Amino acid sequence: MVSNPSLTAIVILNWNGLRYLQEFLPSVVENSTGCEVIVADNASTDGSIPFLREHFPQVRIIQNDDNYGFCEGYNIALRQVEAKYYVLLNSDVHVPPDWTDPIIQLMESDENIAVCQPKIVSQQHPDFFEYAGAGGGMLDALGYPYCRGRLFETLEEDKGQYNDVMEVFWATGACMFVRSNVFHGLGGLEPAFFAHMEEIDFCWRAKNVGYKVMYNGHSQVYHVGGGTLHKSNPRKTYLNFRNGMALLYKNLPPGELFSTVVIRILLDWLAAFRMLLAGQRADAKAVLNAHADLLRKSKYWRKRRKEQHLKGTFPAMSGVYRGSIVWQYFVRQRRTVREL
């Protein structure tokens, strides 16, 4: 059943996240005036559904029959939601009053804006940016993602340096505003990704058909981060390396594909070697498994690439740094975006 249409629907994907719903859902319900709030549940077994029914009867519940992951979980749920704008919001995000207003006003001013994100700061350390999204997502010339306010593991202190509005390359899936017609027109999130980097792939596809992806620092939310998979989890390592390579294969234009992928493979193997030296054997193995899995499923990825609308020269796109952040960070010891 499709809900009554609204301007903005905030959809929180949940899987055994009862503790986050208890802590953060109250702020979403209280501070999101005029928005429909929905929890899409991926077959949780921790009492999430009874809690919602008892304490938040005004929140609509969509129950998926299995844990479909971030990507397909949202794809299934959003087919059942009618609104002009979707907000894909992690369950571990605290939101202040009127947080949606600056984003919606910006998107209403330009129908070419398909995706937008607010400033993301740390819930635990609110003077610092949060890893997932920070001040807007970027890519370097080799397709490595980073954010204004975050290079690799280094997070900048928020001193108002990104209180701006600008076009970026990608918006974080932790808090992503997206036009519903664009979401469905592009086929939603890549289901094979399961989780991680799916928002980069989606934004790249949107840019390839002429849409803008924006950051609006006039809205700010507070994110815990790492609620589902800790950053040191080998499963997360596997997903990041597999999806990072699939992202390039799907979206790079033909003239840039071979050289970029070869360099990235070599750098991935170097990263795996560093993990091995650091005693992270499971993570090193996860990198190799990621590459092997891509080869095993190469037929699927070739099909997905053929379905893409590849456009222009990748380094010329808005939100792309034409150098290498690996070189800048590890060799030249640059730690902030403004030092690049």
Automatic annotation (TrEMBL):
<dbReference type="InterPro" id="IPR029044">
    <property type="entry name" value="Nucleotide-diphossugar_trans"/>
</dbReference>
<feature type="domain" description="Glycosyltransferase 2-like">
    <location>
        <begin position="10"/>
        <end position="132"/>
    </location>
</feature>
<comment type="similarity">
    <text>Belongs to the glycosyltransferase 2 family.</text>
</comment>
<keyword id="KW-0328">Glycosyltransferase</keyword>
<protein>
    <recommendedName>
        <fullName>Glycosyltransferase 2-like domain-containing protein</fullName>
    </recommendedName>
</protein>
<keyword id="KW-0808">Transferase</keyword>
<dbReference type="Pfam" id="PF00535">
    <property type="entry name" value="Glycos_transf_2"/>
</dbReference>
<dbReference type="InterPro" id="IPR001173">
    <property type="entry name" value="Glyco_trans_2-like"/>
</dbReference>
<dbReference type="GO" id="GO:0016757">
    <property type="term" value="F:glycosyltransferase activity"/>
</dbReference>
